[in-house]
Every structure is written in C-alpha cells, then in structure tokens.
Design a protein that fits this description.
By secondary structure, the protein is of the alpha/beta class. It has helices at 24-34, 43-48, 80-87, 101-107; strands spanning 2-7, 12-15, 18-19, 38-42, 59-64, 75-78, 95-97, 113-119, 127-128, 138-143, 147-149, 152-161. It has one domain (2-161): Dihydrofolate Reductase, subunit A. Strands 1, 4, 5, 6, 7, 8, 10, 11 and 12 form a nine-stranded mixed β-sheet that branches.
Length: 167
C-alpha cells in the first residue's frame, strides 16, 4: 500500500477542508501516480474534489463511519473491516491512501511507500500528516531536484518502509 500527499514545512496538509496550495505540477504528479489505480479517501476529502465527485480514471474508495452514507459514483466502505475486504480485490501496490488527515493517520503504518511533495514554505493549517522525518518506520530514499512554481519552492520525495528502524 502507498500514500501520496503534499505537505508544508510543518507537515501541514490542509485548512478548512482544502489543500493548502494548488501546484499544477504536484496535481500532475498525483495524476501520474494514481491514474488507473485505487485511491482511498475519506468523505470530506471526496467532498473537497471538484463538484464533490470522484477523480476520473481511478477507483475511488471512500472510507466512512456513517452507515447511511451513499454515493453512486464510487465505492463506499463503512469501517476499516469493510475496506480491508474491498482491498483484497486489488494489488496492494496499486492502492494509494490519499487523505485526509484521519485516513492518513489510520493507514500510514500499513504503507510501504509514501510519496511526499515537500514545500519549502509554511502555511496556516488545521490538518497534518505524520512527520516521516521523525519516524523510525520510514526513510527517505529519493528526492527530486528543487523546483519552483507559483513562487513556492518544493521537491518530490519518496519514503520507504524500513526493514529496520531508521537511525
């Protein structure tokens, strides 16, 4: 299982149910990584998408605790057990945990790879991603050259699960 996220210097990911910033190259990177794959998101994340509709060309699975929640445009799983059954139908390398905060927290320890776009900027956030630089579970194995878009410096990074805790 994978996760994919964009974070600021403080590992902030969102505010008021929106991304902190929209970087077209990051959205393109997200699309390249997840097209034809499975994304697992929470209901609020789905509602933050354009028109509140699932992203095209990928299987959108919404995890919710609300037994009455219905959505005819994506797969809805009520509770983690229901999600685990659904994910058995898919290759774990094709599954991307894609937010929000609670979904990331719930599944980060089950991920083998985490793709993080790291912005060299700070924003006012009310949602955060676990700081992988302080984690013994993951280590950064790749980072792109620094880039700049819309006045924001950033780089793409890849974290992989450690077979042993990081030093």
């Amino acid at each position: 299982m994978n996760a994919i996220v964009i974070v600021d210097k403080n590992w902030g990911i969102g505010r008021d149910n929106n991304l902190l910033v929209h970087l077209p190259s990051d959205l393109k990177y997200f699309k390249e990584k997840t097209t034809g794959k499975v994304i697992v998101i929470g209901r609020k994340t789905l509602e933050s998408f354009p028109g509140g509709r699932p992203l095209p060309n990928r299987l959108n699975i919404v995890l919710t605790g609300n037994e009455n929640y219905k959505n005819n445009h994506c797969t809805v799983c009520v509770g983690e057990e229901s999600l685990e059954k659904e994910l058995l139908k898919h290759d774990e390398e094709d599954v991307f945990i894609s937010g929000g905060e609670r979904i990331y927290e719930q599944f980060i320890e089950k991920c083998n790879v985490v793709y993080v776009t790291k912005m060299d900027a700070e924003f006012v956030a009310d949602k955060y991603f676990p700081n992988l630089d302080e984690s013994d579970l993951f280590k950064m194995t790749w980072e792109s050259e620094p880039m700049k878009e819309n006045g924001i410096r950033y780089r793409f990074t890849k974290y992989e699960r450690c077979t042993e805790p990081a030093l």
